[in-house]
């Protein structure tokens, strides 16, 4: 674990409703979890930890973000592990249409109220796309991304230098400038996957322990 930065301030932990929680999103009240093992999406009451909705995904879910009354989910499909963006209507079902991720690769997804952003871990970039998946902008990141959310116009990222490292850090990236500003905020004492914000605190998953973790917001 990185010793230079103070660790995040954990506020609570609770068991995930599924094994291998990968995607985590929040609609302000409820959490939405994607399981890397069951290939299902779960709606969870954040205060009680109870499942109120569950759906089979058309692939293996990675990142999740909330876009109004729907979720956008990065999905691994087929034997070649091709990545697509699928839309799940809350309370209903996955829609049949899908958008290819750039170069058919991507892990986590964020939404700023206007545009979607896809992270590519090994390429260490965030890619802005339109509704058809057309690339609008590519933003370099100094570390590999394992979680991403947009808060106040800035990207908050869970990152690590490599797939073999246990050095996980929370970064803030302001991409509104010509040259993005990057701030390292805190260390995570576990391998965090995904990142969500409920209006007051962050949520991520400790996938190795099958737990959901809430921690205090740190200003950029």
Describe the overall structure:
This protein is mostly beta strands and 220 residues long. The chain has a single domain, classed as Neuraminidase (6 Propeller), CATH 2.120.10.30. 0% of the residues lie in helices and 58% in strands. The chain contains no helices and 20 strands. A 4-stranded antiparallel sheet has the order 1-20-19-18, with no helix packed on it. The mean pLDDT is 95.
How are the secondary structure elements laid out?
Blueprint: E1 10-15, E2 21-26, E3 30-35, E4 40-45, E5 51-56, E6 60-67, E7 70-77, E8 82-89, E9 94-100, E10 109-111, E11 116-120, E12 125-129, E13 135-140, E14 144-151, E15 154-160, E16 168-174, E17 181-188, E18 192-197, E19 201-206, E20 211-216
Antiparallel strand pairs: 1-20, 2-3, 3-4, 4-5, 6-7, 7-8, 8-9, 10-11, 11-12, 12-13, 14-15, 15-16, 16-17, 18-19, 19-20
């Amino acid at each position: 674990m990185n010793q230079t930065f103070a660790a995040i301030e954990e506020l609570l932990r609770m068991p995930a409703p599924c094994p291998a929680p990968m995607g985590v999103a929040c609609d302000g009240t409820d959490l939405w979890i994607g399981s890397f093992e069951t290939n299902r999406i779960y709606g969870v009451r954040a205060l009680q930890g109870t499942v109120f909705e569950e759906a089979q995904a058309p692939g293996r879910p990675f990142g999740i973000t909330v876009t109004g009354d729907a979720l956008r989910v990065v999905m691994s499909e087929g034997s070649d592990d091709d990545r697509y963006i699928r839309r799940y209507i809350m309370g209903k079902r996955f829609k049949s249409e899908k958008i290819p991720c750039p170069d058919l690769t991507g892990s986590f997804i964020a939404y700023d109220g206007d545009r979607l952003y896809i992270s590519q871990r090994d390429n260490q970039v965030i890619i802005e796309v339109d509704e058809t998946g057309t690339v609008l902008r590519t933003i370099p990141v100094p570390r590999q991304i394992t979680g991403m959310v947009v808060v106040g116009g800035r990207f908050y990222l869970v990152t690590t230098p490599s797939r073999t490292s246990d050095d996980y850090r929370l970064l803030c990236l302001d991409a509104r400038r010509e040259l993005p500003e990057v701030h390292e905020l805190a260390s995570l004492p576990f391998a965090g996957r995904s990142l969500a914000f409920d209006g007051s605190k962050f949520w991520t998953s400790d996938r190795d322990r099958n737990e959901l973790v809430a921690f205090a917001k740190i200003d950029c």
